[in-house]
């Protein structure tokens, strides 16, 4: 029963992220980098990569209880990576032109 509540919560949060303006994709991964949920345009393999990035960032910035947020950016897109409660989230966004 508890796992179905967690699954429902993850699905709800995942859908809320995808509804945000400029978000083009999202992936959620477990602590081992296995894909829990991914937008149709995101390959499942990305889950392992973003988990590894989050884990390495936490070694670079060992600030205690808070996990760092990693921002990867190019001219047109951003990828925000964060780990919380064992779930790594990567949000892909297009950059607004001013």
From TrEMBL:
One of its GO terms (biological process) is negative regulation of apoptotic process. It is found in: Cytoplasm; Lysosome. GO terms for cellular component: lysosome; Ragulator complex. It comes from the Eukaryota. Keywords: Cytoplasm, Lysosome. InterPro entries: LAMTOR5. One of its GO terms (molecular function) is guanyl-nucleotide exchange factor activity. Pfam families: LAMTOR5 (PF16672). Its main location: cytoplasm. Gene3D superfamilies: Dynein light chain 2a, cytoplasmic. Belongs to the LAMTOR5 family. PANTHER family: RAGULATOR COMPLEX PROTEIN LAMTOR5. This is Late endosomal/lysosomal adaptor and MAPK and MTOR activator 5.
């Amino acid at each position: 029963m508890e796992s179905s509540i967690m699954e429902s919560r993850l699905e709800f949060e995942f859908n809320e992220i995808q509804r945000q303006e400029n978000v083009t994709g999202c992936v959620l991964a477990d602590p081992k980098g296995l894909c829990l949920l991914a937008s149709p345009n995101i390959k499942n393999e990305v889950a392992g990569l973003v988990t590894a990035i989050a884990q390495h960032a936490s070694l670079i910035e060992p600030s205690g209880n808070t996990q760092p947020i990693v921002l990867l950016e190019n001219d047109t897109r951003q990828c925000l990576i964060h780990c919380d409660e064992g779930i790594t989230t990567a949000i892909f966004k297009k950059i607004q032109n001013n």
